[in-house]
């Protein structure tokens, strides 16, 4: 499906509103720290007939290598630090996506850019870029040093109330999490994803009182 589906067209309109970005990044909004950027990338599953909803939408998540010093083993959006050669944060997000999962920048239509958000432990100031992958194909791990796996997650699965919980960290932190099969999306990525589905109008009623510790597989350090 090359045409932008109605659900994402509506999201693009929402992201153009002045206060929408603040609604996504919430308490993580910040103006300090080293610059970085991530790509929140959606596409349409070719096996799902086009329609007016979001049933065919997929989202790319990378699983960080367990060998990394920071955020090892965690799920994240493709992204990384802004290089001096990058024209802007959008260019950095697109470059990182190509380096990590092999998606060329020309294949992505940018739907919106959110305010910079803080990763508390590392101090990064991360700009989230929302994109539409027009001509999807099977994802691949292009950077085997930093990425252990890449996952194509159905948005409707993320939104299932049974798949939403409140994560608990051994140091006392907590926040929204998404559980799909054996994947656990929490911390910075969970916060951004929760904010995005909320402002998009996709969120379904869920029980924040359902709490669970972060699984050891996704808790290699204290980064969030």
TrEMBL record:
Domain Nudix hydrolase: 33-179
Lineage of the organism: Bacteria, Bacillati, Actinomycetota, Actinomycetes, Propionibacteriales
Keywords: Hydrolase, Magnesium, Manganese, Metal-binding
Name used for this protein in its record: CoA pyrophosphatase
CDD domains reported for this sequence: NUDIX_CoAse_Nudt7
SUPFAM superfamilies linked: Nudix (SSF55811)
Residues spanning the membrane: none
Species this chain originates from: Propioniciclava soli
Cofactor requirement: Mg(2+); Mn(2+)
